[in-house]
Amino acid sequence: MATEYASSGEYIKHHLQNLTYGQLPPGFERHDAHGNVEVLQQATWTFAHGAEEVKAMGFWSINVDSMLFSIGLGLIFLFLFRMAAKKATTGVPSGLQNFVEWVIEFIDTSVRGSFSHRNALVAPLALTVFMWVFLMNAMDLLPVDWLPFAATMAGVPYLKVVPSTDPNVTFGMSLSIFVLVLYYSVKMKGAGGFFSELAFQPFPKFLFPVNLLLEGVGLIAKPISLSLRLFGNMYAGEMIFILIALMFGGGWVLAVFGGALQWAWAVFHILIITLQAFIFMTLTIVYLDMAHAEHH
Amino acid sequence: MNFNATLIGQSITFIFFVWFCMKFVWPPIMNALETRKKQIADGLAAADRGKHELELAAKKAGDNMRDAKAQAAEVIAQAEKRAAQIIEEAKLAAKEEGDRQLAAAQANIAQETNRARESLREQVAGLAVAGAEKILRREVNAQTHADLLGQLKAEL
Question: How far apart are the first and last CA of chain B?
């Protein structure tokens, strides 16, 4: 399928472009595929074609594909687990309930292992993080061209199927968690306690600007590293899938070799997607545990 | 990496998902798990108790059995003792009766013997007196010699 594109560069670019809906400012010059230029007379709501247009749309635009896929996957997760929860019996569990219980016990064990305080929010939060991230990552295992190709046939110009390769998605989660961390830090230690934790250690009190800088960077690094780790891993993994997919256009020898490579990378990726989901969940628990803990 | 309103949308979605999970997914499943855990623990405890009770009952049954055996043995021993006693008593009574009858027979015999001897003595004495009378008829006065004759009679 790579052969449909003018160059492999364009193919890659196309695959890394979100389906963004936003407003183009008046006077914007749109270039279509045939090199024609259209100057917009007024502000126009439309889907972005190419990175330039995405940039021009600014903050108030939305990645429709990321939203649809992430919400869809989240609903699948909630639907399955809600079904199991509704039918949950204390007797011998059947297929779905068995699986759901297995996941929940795994999460519960992780939470009990890393979180030493009482908070009814943390375990469901960890479950949501794990399952949602896992499902979003798992979209990576679909061959990179299937859904975008189908979308192109249906007239949708761009489609990025792995929501966790969109930094908006990972930051959306990590920033929400960061807000929770701040909230529980203040709730558990009081505003003063939280401030003194940031300002009066590790160095003596008179060095508080240095302390504040160090601890502040440490604090802010938490959500950023959390989301960038997931984003970076999934983005890089997706990129390799795309590069492998390029080989399918290079004659049958390369295609067979590419097929083998894709299979191998997909198998390896099963490990990565699970691991990344697990890391994201564990760090969420650990950060919240740190927010609850009193330092002295 | 360009950020746009997706960030906000994702945050809202995430918060909603977590809320839903916390409200409708986690508690019922956790409840079911806890309840089952308790049921299993109870079941195991009950099984243990049942086993213990069975052991006790078996022990009690054994005890009862042993007691009954001992009782039966005692009863048999007593019965045997009693039987022996009865036999002894019967033997004793029979011997006594025999002795008594023997003694009575012997006494009877002795009496008969004495009586026979008396009558014999009477007859011998009569014979002797009669003989003497015949011899002495003439010379002897019965009245004068009556003492002598009586004496003789006593001697015989």
Answer: 174
Contact between A62 and B4 under an 8 Å Cβ cutoff? The reply is yes
Which tens digits make up the pLDDT trace of B90-99? 999 999 999 9
φ, ψ (nearest 5 deg) of residue A23:
-105, 125
The two three-digit tokens of residue A178, written as one number: 């960061």
Average pLDDT value over all residues in chain B: 90
With 0.80 as the threshold, say if the pTM is over it: no
- Cβ <8 Å between A173 and B11: yes
Cβ neighbours of B24 in A, within 8 Å: 82, 85
The CA distance from A127 to A283, in Å, is 13
**Alpha carbon distance A136, A69 (integer Å):** 8
Of A147, A178, A169, the C-alpha closest to A71 is A169
Q: What is the pLDDT of residue A1?
A: 43
User: A with B: how many residue pairs have Cβ under 8 Å apart?
Assistant: 124
Q: Which of residues 212-241 of A touch B (CB under 8 A)?
A: 231
- Contact between A58 and A28 under an 8 Å Cβ cutoff? The reply is no
Query: At residue B50, what is the residue type?
Result: G
Mean pLDDT of chain A: 88
CB pair distance less than 8 Å for A108 and B8:
no
